[in-house]
Amino acid sequence: MKIIRDISGASIKRSVDSGTEEQRRAVQGIIASVKQNGDSAVREYTERFDGIHLENYKVSEREIEEAFSALDPEMVSIIEEAADNIRAFHEQQKRSSWFTTDEDGTMLGQKLTPLDSVGVYVPGGTAAYPSSVLMNVLPAKVAGVKRITMVSPPGKDGTLSPGVLVAAKVAGVEEIFKVGGAQAVAALAYGTESISPVDKITGPGNIYVALAKREVFGDVDIDMIAGPSEIVILADGNQRADEIAADLLSQAEHDALASSVLVTNSSALAEEVSVEVERQLATLPREEIARQSIIDYGAIYVTRDLEEGIELVNELAAEHLEILTDKPFETMAKIRHAGAIFLGRYSSEPVGDYFAGPNHVLPTNGTARFSSPLNVDEFMKKTSVISYSETALKKNYEKIAKLARLEGLEAHARAVEIRFDKK
Fold this sequence. Notes:
This protein is an alpha/beta fold and 423 residues long. Helices cover 45% and strands 15% of the residues.
């Protein structure tokens, strides 16, 4: 693993694939076809891209029952416990509508209303991500969204992973469809005979899913266009190299584009971690992917001191930040930019990925400078409420009229003046 002592120009940003013109045109064509032809277009694309013909692609209750039977009872229990943790964390994020009143009769406020409907995209096919189901569905449920529709591409046998179906049932999803790709995004955005349109689409996918989400944004809301995963570990010289290496590789195995970075003020630790990463790589089932990630986007930055390391961490604005220092809480107070922060050696990043409760849908590629994790607010609308009494308007209408005329909007000025011209 590269050890770098000159930290100028350090970055975890990657040139993330935004799609070729051919891919964009293909996605636009799929969306147009689904808008026009509905279910028949969805079936056609599912057969073409997933190699399976499904006359009815809605998941039945029987399929869900079979998923529970197929999954080890202990795993069902673990999914249920993880769901409880995630739900409890997001319950703490709930906010209420609020209103203030003045003596002159002015009442101002903010009314919070959950979205009517949300669509959740869950990657499928050869992979299965029950954790993605829980992390996308449960904040929406806590927010009070009434209808949540989940889509996921089927395997070659026309089924979805038992783990995904169990997680969906545990999270409270009532509508599940075996469809993926751009056609699934189009169906969620515009509706078909089988799938009702939604107000917002969340969840990760391949480049075609990402491009489709970009295309439909504006007609519906989306969560984000997530990039490859990344981890930055800030460590002093008193930490264990084997644990740090394991945490770095936990992200490297995601994707060849994933970024795993150690920032330390200890040259000795840097050398130890570099050796340990190589040792652990040799036994990883996903060695090829992890090794390419480490070669292309892995780095160990050695800083003069911990303070310089903190400055670098804030510049990187990582998706996941582990703080492994003697006083991690004191260090955390100096962190301004990170998607999620993990404190101490027993808070390894996978704890947050799966079980602790905070959302694992996080800003990537430096966007933690201005973005937040997926949260309950993402599924709520905020509506401003204004109520002026006669007394309040009489006190202020001339000021309002003058501001309107400053902008050249005479009708605005007259709209407030007319209420007193008649008296």
